[in-house]
Design goal:
The protein is built from three helices and 15 strands. By secondary structure, it is an alpha+beta fold. The strands form five sheets. Strands 6-7-14-11-12 form a five-stranded antiparallel sheet, with no helix packed on it. It has a four-stranded antiparallel sheet with strand order 5-15-9-10, covered by helices on one side.
């Protein structure tokens, strides 16, 4: 309900209130990674990352970035270049825009001006893993829709697998190396780590 647009009405005077942001109950997502060093300097020892109703891809990316940030603070390598890279990676997964929360003297909340995600990438469904050959580290994927090419980035999602994100270095169809595989073809590639039958495979593409 809080992600919808609302019109505010004064029931006594029967007038409507026009607001600049129609999603008046939809806050931006809290992001603290760019000043996480200050939080840790203050003695904070536990960080909670919100992941309810988010995809495995989101949880994997966010926890990876914050873990790297904590480790960088510990070893003294927390710097602007790393923060910029973490910001770039966080912007690729689901988000409603970012704000600093009620830290650093911030007094007012910031609200999302659009409905849905502002992620810089989106997922295109390709199909489900038909088999994974553990000995050689290769998965078999019947392509149900769209196409897959060498060089594409994919994310493989499963309830046990979690989220495996990888770039297709080499693609095979019928034991031949190909540049692209399309709908109806069965392709194989190395995902980089074990996956499972029925895991869903998505191609990651820039958001329009």
């Amino acid at each position: 309900m809080c992600r919808r647009g609302y019109t505010v009405t004064d029931k006594d005077r029967e007038v409507e209130l026009d607001v600049e942001n129609e999603y008046i109950m939809s806050p931006k997502d809290l992001k603290t990674i760019h000043f996480l060093d200050k939080i840790l300097d203050a003695g904070v020892q536990v960080l909670k990352i919100e992941g309810r109703a988010r995809s495995g891809e989101y949880v994997r990316t966010v926890t990876e970035c914050y873990r790297e940030a904590v480790e960088a603070w510990i070893d003294g390598s927390f710097h602007r270049e790393k923060v910029d890279e973490w910001d770039r990676r966080l912007a690729r997964v689901f988000n409603r825009g970012f704000w600093d929360g009620y830290y650093l003297g911030q007094r007012l909340g910031e609200w999302s001006e659009v409905h849905g995600s502002q992620a810089t990438r989106r997922k295109e469904y390709l199909g489900r893993c038909r088999n994974y050959y553990d000995r050689i580290g290769v998965m078999e994927l019947p392509i149900e829709t769209g196409s897959l090419s060498a060089g594409d980035e994919v994310v493989i999602l499963g309830s046990t697998t979690g989220a495996v994100e990888t770039r297709i270095d080499e693609l095979w169809v019928e034991e031949r190396v190909v540049a692209t595989a399309g709908k109806g073809e069965v392709c194989t590639f190395r995902p980089g780590q074990p996956v499972r039958r029925s895991d869903k495979v998505y191609k990651l593409v820039p958001r329009d």
